[in-house]
């Protein structure tokens, strides 16, 4: 079972987040810190079906959007969670895993595709005390134009991306992706467009790691 033995790890993260530290990540001059939000967008079918089976993972949080204060400690914990999940989960397509084209699920058996990595990172951070409103599942187009899912972390220093294809946590402008849509901060079940109107289905391939 994937989560067995990691309660202590999550507790350590929660303790670390309570410590103050100076910020080691600074914005460069001319950086666009935040993505421009557009109109309401259709929720991915994978998210809708996931929520039908996992209602507790899809509850709305505070109606007041909250950003993370990106301290040095918070930054280290983002790197730790991103790296741990990327190494712990083995990539597999939904067709090979479940026999269907698209299925979002927490990767409790140790296998998943891009959105499953995102769901686990989101869960670990929420369980460690991070506000849901700052952890936004995001659909992008990767450098080959394929649909892909990442986790956007919205902070006072800008928006950063946790990605199963990169062990580093990058500013959203440094990923090379085209951002299509993501969850609203006010409600995880409302999605908003990010300027690319073409549909993108977040499916994985054998290289989706």
UniProtKB/TrEMBL annotation:
Superkingdom of origin: Bacteria
Leader peptide range in chain numbering: 1-27
Keywords in alphabetical order: Signal
Entry keyword annotation includes Cytoplasm: no
UniProt xrefs under PANTHER family: BLR5470 PROTEIN (PTHR39327:SF1), PTHR39327
Name recorded for this polypeptide: Transglutaminase
Organism of provenance: Bradyrhizobium icense
Taxonomic lineage: Bacteria, Pseudomonadati, Pseudomonadota, Alphaproteobacteria, Hyphomicrobiales
